[in-house]
Amino acid sequence: MPEQIFAHFANYLPDAGILARMKRIYMDHSATTPVAPEVLEAMLPFFSGKFGNASSLHSFGLEAKEALEASREKVAKLLGANAEEIIFTSGGTESDNLSLKGIALRSREKGRHIITTVIEHPAILETCRKLQKDGFEVTYLPVNADGLADPAALEAAIRKDTILISVMHANNEVGTIQPLEEIGKIAAEKDICFHTDAVQSVGKIETKVNDLGVDLLSLSAHKFYGPKGVGALYVRKGTRLESIVQGGGHEHGLRSGTENVAGIVGLARAADLASEIMASEAERLTHLRDRLAKLVLEKVKDAWINGSMTKRLPGNLNFSFKYVEGESLLLFLDAKGIGVSTGSACSSKKLEPSHVLLSLGLKPEECHGSLRITMGRSNTGDDVDYVAASIAEAVARFRSISALGR
Which of 128, 193, 346, 367 is flagged as catalytic? Predict the structure, then answer.
Protein backbone atom coordinates (compact mmCIF):
# COMPACT_ATOMS: atom_id res chain seq x y z
CA MET A 1 0.00 0.00 0.00
CA PRO A 2 1.45 3.44 -0.92
CA GLU A 3 2.71 5.22 2.20
CA GLN A 4 1.20 8.53 1.14
CA ILE A 5 -2.31 7.08 1.47
CA PHE A 6 -1.73 6.30 5.12
CA ALA A 7 -0.01 9.62 5.75
CA HIS A 8 -2.97 11.62 4.44
CA PHE A 9 -5.59 9.28 5.86
CA ALA A 10 -4.16 9.52 9.40
CA ASN A 11 -5.35 13.13 9.60
CA TYR A 12 -8.98 11.96 9.51
CA LEU A 13 -8.88 8.96 11.83
CA PRO A 14 -11.21 9.39 14.82
CA ASP A 15 -9.93 8.63 18.31
CA ALA A 16 -10.88 5.46 20.17
CA GLY A 17 -13.75 7.12 22.03
CA ILE A 18 -15.39 8.28 18.83
CA LEU A 19 -14.94 4.87 17.25
CA ALA A 20 -16.72 3.24 20.20
CA ARG A 21 -19.76 5.49 19.72
CA MET A 22 -19.76 5.52 15.92
CA LYS A 23 -22.57 4.02 13.89
CA ARG A 24 -21.25 0.96 12.07
CA ILE A 25 -22.61 -0.03 8.67
CA TYR A 26 -21.52 -3.28 7.07
CA MET A 27 -21.81 -3.39 3.29
CA ASP A 28 -19.37 -6.16 2.40
CA HIS A 29 -21.74 -9.13 2.42
CA SER A 30 -20.09 -10.71 -0.62
CA ALA A 31 -16.97 -11.16 1.51
CA THR A 32 -18.86 -12.76 4.38
CA THR A 33 -22.07 -12.44 6.37
CA PRO A 34 -22.75 -12.56 10.10
CA VAL A 35 -24.10 -15.83 11.47
CA ALA A 36 -27.86 -15.42 11.86
CA PRO A 37 -29.12 -15.81 15.46
CA GLU A 38 -31.32 -18.73 14.42
CA VAL A 39 -28.30 -20.43 12.87
CA LEU A 40 -26.18 -20.00 15.99
CA GLU A 41 -28.99 -21.35 18.14
CA ALA A 42 -29.27 -24.45 15.96
CA MET A 43 -25.51 -25.07 16.08
CA LEU A 44 -24.82 -24.66 19.80
CA PRO A 45 -26.00 -28.10 21.01
CA PHE A 46 -23.59 -29.83 18.62
CA PHE A 47 -20.53 -28.26 20.22
CA SER A 48 -21.13 -29.92 23.57
CA GLY A 49 -24.19 -32.02 24.43
CA LYS A 50 -24.56 -33.59 20.96
CA PHE A 51 -20.86 -33.90 20.20
CA GLY A 52 -20.79 -37.43 18.76
CA ASN A 53 -18.91 -38.56 15.66
CA ALA A 54 -21.44 -39.28 12.91
CA SER A 55 -19.53 -42.44 11.98
CA SER A 56 -19.82 -43.98 15.46
CA LEU A 57 -22.41 -46.71 15.98
CA HIS A 58 -23.44 -45.86 19.55
CA SER A 59 -26.27 -43.47 20.45
CA PHE A 60 -23.96 -40.44 20.55
CA GLY A 61 -22.87 -41.11 16.98
CA LEU A 62 -26.34 -41.95 15.77
CA GLU A 63 -27.60 -38.64 17.15
CA ALA A 64 -24.96 -36.81 15.11
CA LYS A 65 -25.67 -38.95 12.03
CA GLU A 66 -29.37 -38.12 12.24
CA ALA A 67 -28.58 -34.38 12.35
CA LEU A 68 -26.16 -34.79 9.43
CA GLU A 69 -28.72 -36.49 7.19
CA ALA A 70 -31.51 -34.09 8.16
CA SER A 71 -29.19 -31.24 7.16
CA ARG A 72 -28.49 -32.92 3.83
CA GLU A 73 -32.23 -32.94 3.13
CA LYS A 74 -32.53 -29.21 3.90
CA VAL A 75 -29.62 -28.17 1.69
CA ALA A 76 -30.95 -30.37 -1.11
CA LYS A 77 -34.36 -28.70 -0.81
CA LEU A 78 -32.83 -25.25 -1.29
CA LEU A 79 -31.26 -26.46 -4.55
CA GLY A 80 -34.17 -28.58 -5.77
CA ALA A 81 -31.93 -31.63 -5.53
CA ASN A 82 -32.02 -35.05 -3.88
CA ALA A 83 -30.34 -35.52 -0.52
CA GLU A 84 -27.96 -38.19 -1.80
CA GLU A 85 -26.60 -35.64 -4.31
CA ILE A 86 -25.23 -33.35 -1.56
CA ILE A 87 -21.61 -33.70 -0.42
CA PHE A 88 -20.51 -31.61 2.57
CA THR A 89 -17.15 -29.83 2.31
CA SER A 90 -15.19 -27.10 4.07
CA GLY A 91 -16.51 -24.41 1.71
CA GLY A 92 -16.58 -23.07 -1.82
CA THR A 93 -12.87 -23.45 -2.54
CA GLU A 94 -12.83 -27.13 -1.66
CA SER A 95 -16.04 -27.73 -3.60
CA ASP A 96 -14.54 -26.05 -6.66
CA ASN A 97 -11.33 -28.07 -6.36
CA LEU A 98 -13.22 -31.34 -5.95
CA SER A 99 -15.38 -30.54 -8.99
CA LEU A 100 -12.61 -29.60 -11.40
CA LYS A 101 -9.94 -32.02 -10.26
CA GLY A 102 -12.44 -34.79 -9.64
CA ILE A 103 -13.84 -34.60 -13.18
CA ALA A 104 -10.41 -34.09 -14.76
CA LEU A 105 -8.87 -37.09 -13.02
CA ARG A 106 -11.88 -39.33 -13.69
CA SER A 107 -12.17 -38.31 -17.37
CA ARG A 108 -8.54 -37.86 -18.40
CA GLU A 109 -8.64 -40.89 -20.69
CA LYS A 110 -11.69 -39.44 -22.47
CA GLY A 111 -10.28 -35.94 -22.91
CA ARG A 112 -8.18 -33.17 -21.38
CA HIS A 113 -9.97 -29.98 -22.40
CA ILE A 114 -11.81 -27.66 -19.97
CA ILE A 115 -13.76 -24.47 -20.68
CA THR A 116 -14.21 -21.66 -18.15
CA THR A 117 -14.32 -17.84 -18.16
CA VAL A 118 -11.74 -15.15 -17.47
CA ILE A 119 -13.74 -13.68 -14.56
CA GLU A 120 -13.98 -16.77 -12.36
CA HIS A 121 -13.01 -16.77 -8.70
CA PRO A 122 -9.36 -17.71 -8.02
CA ALA A 123 -10.61 -21.03 -6.63
CA ILE A 124 -11.48 -21.91 -10.23
CA LEU A 125 -8.71 -20.07 -12.07
CA GLU A 126 -5.88 -21.37 -9.87
CA THR A 127 -7.24 -24.90 -10.04
CA CYS A 128 -7.36 -24.65 -13.82
CA ARG A 129 -3.76 -23.43 -13.88
CA LYS A 130 -2.72 -26.39 -11.75
CA LEU A 131 -4.50 -28.75 -14.14
CA GLN A 132 -2.73 -27.11 -17.07
CA LYS A 133 0.60 -27.95 -15.42
CA ASP A 134 -0.64 -31.53 -15.18
CA GLY A 135 -1.27 -31.75 -18.94
CA PHE A 136 -4.83 -30.47 -19.31
CA GLU A 137 -5.82 -27.68 -21.72
CA VAL A 138 -8.07 -24.81 -20.64
CA THR A 139 -10.01 -22.31 -22.77
CA TYR A 140 -10.72 -19.05 -20.92
CA LEU A 141 -13.75 -17.39 -22.47
CA PRO A 142 -13.85 -13.57 -22.57
CA VAL A 143 -16.83 -11.55 -21.35
CA ASN A 144 -18.46 -8.39 -22.69
CA ALA A 145 -18.42 -4.95 -21.05
CA ASP A 146 -21.23 -6.03 -18.71
CA GLY A 147 -19.30 -9.10 -17.59
CA LEU A 148 -21.46 -11.60 -19.45
CA ALA A 149 -20.14 -14.68 -21.24
CA ASP A 150 -21.55 -15.48 -24.68
CA PRO A 151 -23.15 -18.96 -24.90
CA ALA A 152 -22.51 -19.02 -28.65
CA ALA A 153 -18.79 -18.41 -28.09
CA LEU A 154 -18.78 -21.16 -25.48
CA GLU A 155 -20.42 -23.60 -27.89
CA ALA A 156 -17.86 -22.71 -30.55
CA ALA A 157 -15.04 -23.46 -28.09
CA ILE A 158 -16.22 -27.03 -27.47
CA ARG A 159 -13.95 -29.74 -28.84
CA LYS A 160 -14.21 -33.52 -29.11
CA ASP A 161 -11.98 -33.83 -26.05
CA THR A 162 -13.87 -31.28 -23.90
CA ILE A 163 -14.70 -32.94 -20.58
CA LEU A 164 -15.88 -30.03 -18.41
CA ILE A 165 -17.46 -26.59 -18.56
CA SER A 166 -17.24 -24.41 -15.43
CA VAL A 167 -19.01 -21.03 -15.41
CA MET A 168 -19.83 -19.14 -12.22
CA HIS A 169 -23.48 -18.31 -11.55
CA ALA A 170 -22.89 -14.77 -10.23
CA ASN A 171 -19.63 -12.86 -10.12
CA ASN A 172 -18.24 -11.96 -6.70
CA GLU A 173 -17.03 -8.50 -7.75
CA VAL A 174 -19.60 -7.05 -10.15
CA GLY A 175 -22.56 -9.28 -9.36
CA THR A 176 -23.23 -10.22 -12.99
CA ILE A 177 -25.52 -13.25 -13.32
CA GLN A 178 -24.45 -15.55 -16.14
CA PRO A 179 -26.88 -17.22 -18.61
CA LEU A 180 -26.48 -20.67 -17.09
CA GLU A 181 -29.75 -22.01 -18.48
CA GLU A 182 -28.50 -21.50 -22.04
CA ILE A 183 -25.07 -22.90 -21.23
CA GLY A 184 -26.63 -25.86 -19.46
CA LYS A 185 -28.62 -26.79 -22.54
CA ILE A 186 -25.49 -26.65 -24.69
CA ALA A 187 -23.57 -28.81 -22.22
CA ALA A 188 -26.38 -31.37 -22.08
CA GLU A 189 -26.65 -31.57 -25.88
CA LYS A 190 -22.91 -32.14 -26.15
CA ASP A 191 -22.87 -34.57 -23.18
CA ILE A 192 -20.31 -32.48 -21.29
CA CYS A 193 -20.24 -32.17 -17.52
CA PHE A 194 -21.28 -28.68 -16.38
CA HIS A 195 -20.14 -27.12 -13.08
CA THR A 196 -21.03 -23.76 -11.57
CA ASP A 197 -19.48 -21.88 -8.70
CA ALA A 198 -22.69 -20.59 -7.08
CA VAL A 199 -21.04 -19.34 -3.89
CA GLN A 200 -22.35 -15.80 -4.45
CA SER A 201 -25.84 -16.71 -5.62
CA VAL A 202 -27.06 -19.48 -3.31
CA GLY A 203 -29.35 -18.01 -0.68
CA LYS A 204 -29.73 -14.72 -2.59
CA ILE A 205 -31.49 -15.77 -5.80
CA GLU A 206 -33.07 -19.00 -7.02
CA THR A 207 -30.48 -21.69 -7.72
CA LYS A 208 -32.49 -24.76 -8.67
CA VAL A 209 -30.07 -27.21 -10.24
CA ASN A 210 -32.52 -28.59 -12.80
CA ASP A 211 -33.50 -25.12 -14.00
CA LEU A 212 -29.83 -24.16 -14.37
CA GLY A 213 -28.94 -27.45 -16.04
CA VAL A 214 -25.84 -28.05 -13.93
CA ASP A 215 -24.23 -31.35 -12.96
CA LEU A 216 -22.11 -29.85 -10.18
CA LEU A 217 -22.70 -26.79 -7.98
CA SER A 218 -20.48 -25.29 -5.29
CA LEU A 219 -21.78 -23.30 -2.30
CA SER A 220 -20.45 -21.87 0.96
CA ALA A 221 -22.44 -21.29 4.17
CA HIS A 222 -20.82 -18.05 5.27
CA LYS A 223 -22.06 -16.19 2.20
CA PHE A 224 -25.69 -16.53 3.35
CA TYR A 225 -25.61 -16.12 7.13
CA GLY A 226 -24.17 -19.51 8.00
CA PRO A 227 -20.83 -20.31 9.66
CA LYS A 228 -17.41 -20.15 8.05
CA GLY A 229 -15.54 -23.31 7.20
CA VAL A 230 -18.44 -25.34 5.84
CA GLY A 231 -20.00 -25.70 2.42
CA ALA A 232 -21.40 -28.25 0.02
CA LEU A 233 -21.07 -29.64 -3.46
CA TYR A 234 -24.10 -30.77 -5.42
CA VAL A 235 -23.21 -33.80 -7.57
CA ARG A 236 -25.93 -34.88 -9.99
CA LYS A 237 -26.71 -38.60 -9.76
CA GLY A 238 -24.58 -40.43 -12.31
CA THR A 239 -21.81 -37.81 -12.36
CA ARG A 240 -18.56 -39.59 -11.58
CA LEU A 241 -15.78 -37.83 -9.67
CA GLU A 242 -12.43 -39.02 -8.41
CA SER A 243 -11.81 -38.13 -4.78
CA ILE A 244 -8.92 -35.74 -4.10
CA VAL A 245 -8.79 -36.46 -0.35
CA GLN A 246 -8.15 -40.04 0.71
CA GLY A 247 -9.11 -41.41 4.10
CA GLY A 248 -12.08 -43.06 5.75
CA GLY A 249 -14.45 -42.75 2.81
CA HIS A 250 -16.86 -40.21 4.28
CA GLU A 251 -19.44 -38.39 2.13
CA HIS A 252 -20.02 -41.25 -0.30
CA GLY A 253 -16.27 -41.71 -0.64
CA LEU A 254 -15.79 -38.26 -2.18
CA ARG A 255 -14.69 -36.26 0.86
CA SER A 256 -12.94 -38.20 3.61
CA GLY A 257 -12.71 -36.65 7.06
CA THR A 258 -14.93 -36.48 10.14
CA GLU A 259 -17.87 -34.25 9.31
CA ASN A 260 -18.21 -30.82 10.91
CA VAL A 261 -21.67 -31.60 12.26
CA ALA A 262 -22.17 -28.28 14.08
CA GLY A 263 -21.19 -26.34 10.95
CA ILE A 264 -23.35 -28.52 8.71
CA VAL A 265 -26.36 -28.02 10.99
CA GLY A 266 -25.70 -24.27 10.72
CA LEU A 267 -25.50 -24.48 6.93
CA ALA A 268 -28.84 -26.30 6.86
CA ARG A 269 -30.53 -23.75 9.12
CA ALA A 270 -29.17 -20.94 6.95
CA ALA A 271 -30.61 -22.73 3.91
CA ASP A 272 -34.01 -22.90 5.60
CA LEU A 273 -33.94 -19.19 6.41
CA ALA A 274 -32.90 -18.29 2.88
CA SER A 275 -35.80 -20.30 1.46
CA GLU A 276 -38.25 -18.43 3.68
CA ILE A 277 -37.19 -14.86 2.91
CA MET A 278 -35.25 -15.00 -0.37
CA ALA A 279 -37.92 -13.47 -2.63
CA SER A 280 -38.88 -10.59 -0.35
CA GLU A 281 -35.27 -9.87 0.60
CA ALA A 282 -34.17 -9.84 -3.04
CA GLU A 283 -36.88 -7.29 -3.82
CA ARG A 284 -35.89 -5.12 -0.84
CA LEU A 285 -32.18 -5.22 -1.66
CA THR A 286 -32.80 -4.44 -5.32
CA HIS A 287 -34.64 -1.30 -4.24
CA LEU A 288 -31.81 -0.27 -1.90
CA ARG A 289 -29.20 -1.07 -4.56
CA ASP A 290 -30.88 1.08 -7.19
CA ARG A 291 -31.40 3.91 -4.70
CA LEU A 292 -27.72 3.91 -3.73
CA ALA A 293 -26.65 3.81 -7.38
CA LYS A 294 -28.84 6.82 -8.19
CA LEU A 295 -27.64 8.84 -5.21
CA VAL A 296 -23.95 8.22 -5.80
CA LEU A 297 -24.09 8.95 -9.52
CA GLU A 298 -26.02 12.16 -8.81
CA LYS A 299 -23.52 13.32 -6.20
CA VAL A 300 -20.26 12.28 -7.88
CA LYS A 301 -19.08 13.22 -11.37
CA ASP A 302 -16.77 10.98 -13.41
CA ALA A 303 -18.20 7.86 -11.81
CA TRP A 304 -19.92 4.79 -13.22
CA ILE A 305 -21.15 1.32 -12.29
CA ASN A 306 -19.31 -1.77 -13.49
CA GLY A 307 -21.34 -4.72 -14.73
CA SER A 308 -24.90 -5.19 -15.90
CA MET A 309 -27.68 -3.44 -13.95
CA THR A 310 -30.34 -5.81 -15.27
CA LYS A 311 -28.59 -9.17 -14.79
CA ARG A 312 -27.14 -8.50 -11.37
CA LEU A 313 -27.32 -9.77 -7.81
CA PRO A 314 -29.85 -7.76 -5.75
CA GLY A 315 -27.45 -6.18 -3.25
CA ASN A 316 -24.34 -5.72 -5.40
CA LEU A 317 -22.88 -2.46 -6.70
CA ASN A 318 -19.39 -1.91 -8.10
CA PHE A 319 -18.45 1.73 -8.70
CA SER A 320 -15.44 3.23 -10.44
CA PHE A 321 -14.33 6.79 -9.67
CA LYS A 322 -11.82 8.66 -11.79
CA TYR A 323 -8.80 10.26 -10.11
CA VAL A 324 -9.25 8.37 -6.82
CA GLU A 325 -7.64 5.23 -5.37
CA GLY A 326 -10.12 2.64 -4.15
CA GLU A 327 -7.90 1.84 -1.16
CA SER A 328 -8.08 5.48 -0.06
CA LEU A 329 -11.87 5.44 -0.31
CA LEU A 330 -12.11 2.17 1.60
CA LEU A 331 -10.01 3.48 4.49
CA PHE A 332 -11.83 6.81 4.64
CA LEU A 333 -15.19 5.04 4.73
CA ASP A 334 -13.93 2.62 7.36
CA ALA A 335 -13.05 5.59 9.57
CA LYS A 336 -16.69 6.65 9.24
CA GLY A 337 -17.88 3.21 10.34
CA ILE A 338 -18.62 1.83 6.85
CA GLY A 339 -17.30 -1.55 5.72
CA VAL A 340 -16.93 -2.02 1.94
CA SER A 341 -14.26 -3.45 -0.36
CA THR A 342 -12.29 -2.36 -3.39
CA GLY A 343 -11.41 -3.90 -6.74
CA SER A 344 -7.71 -3.96 -6.04
CA ALA A 345 -5.89 -6.57 -4.00
CA CYS A 346 -3.52 -4.80 -1.62
CA SER A 347 -0.14 -6.26 -0.76
CA SER A 348 2.92 -4.83 0.89
CA LYS A 349 4.67 -4.44 -2.46
CA LYS A 350 2.06 -3.47 -5.04
CA LEU A 351 -1.56 -2.95 -5.92
CA GLU A 352 -2.84 -5.48 -8.44
CA PRO A 353 -5.82 -4.36 -10.55
CA SER A 354 -8.84 -6.65 -10.44
CA HIS A 355 -8.73 -9.33 -13.13
CA VAL A 356 -12.52 -9.08 -13.36
CA LEU A 357 -12.56 -5.35 -14.06
CA LEU A 358 -9.70 -5.65 -16.53
CA SER A 359 -11.74 -8.30 -18.35
CA LEU A 360 -14.64 -5.85 -18.61
CA GLY A 361 -12.32 -3.49 -20.53
CA LEU A 362 -11.33 -1.08 -17.75
CA LYS A 363 -7.86 0.44 -17.69
CA PRO A 364 -5.64 -0.44 -14.71
CA GLU A 365 -6.03 3.03 -13.22
CA GLU A 366 -9.82 2.72 -13.51
CA CYS A 367 -9.69 -0.61 -11.71
CA HIS A 368 -7.76 0.98 -8.87
CA GLY A 369 -10.53 3.54 -8.46
CA SER A 370 -13.22 0.95 -7.83
CA LEU A 371 -15.41 0.28 -4.81
CA ARG A 372 -17.57 -2.81 -4.24
CA ILE A 373 -20.65 -2.40 -2.07
CA THR A 374 -22.70 -5.48 -1.21
CA MET A 375 -25.76 -5.01 0.99
CA GLY A 376 -27.50 -7.51 3.21
CA ARG A 377 -30.30 -8.12 5.70
CA SER A 378 -29.17 -5.50 8.23
CA ASN A 379 -28.97 -2.60 5.78
CA THR A 380 -31.62 0.12 5.63
CA GLY A 381 -32.60 3.16 3.62
CA ASP A 382 -30.90 5.38 6.22
CA ASP A 383 -27.70 3.38 5.71
CA VAL A 384 -27.91 4.01 1.99
CA ASP A 385 -28.26 7.77 2.48
CA TYR A 386 -25.33 7.88 4.90
CA VAL A 387 -23.07 5.77 2.67
CA ALA A 388 -23.90 7.83 -0.44
CA ALA A 389 -23.09 11.08 1.36
CA SER A 390 -19.88 9.60 2.78
CA ILE A 391 -18.73 8.39 -0.64
CA ALA A 392 -19.34 11.83 -2.12
CA GLU A 393 -17.37 13.43 0.73
CA ALA A 394 -14.51 10.98 0.34
CA VAL A 395 -14.22 11.37 -3.43
CA ALA A 396 -14.31 15.16 -3.18
CA ARG A 397 -11.63 15.18 -0.48
CA PHE A 398 -9.23 12.89 -2.29
CA ARG A 399 -9.74 14.57 -5.65
CA SER A 400 -8.92 17.92 -4.03
CA ILE A 401 -5.42 16.67 -3.23
CA SER A 402 -4.91 14.87 -6.53
CA ALA A 403 -3.25 16.69 -9.40
CA LEU A 404 -5.36 14.68 -11.85
CA GLY A 405 -8.63 15.46 -10.10
CA ARG A 406 -8.22 19.23 -9.94
Answer: 346
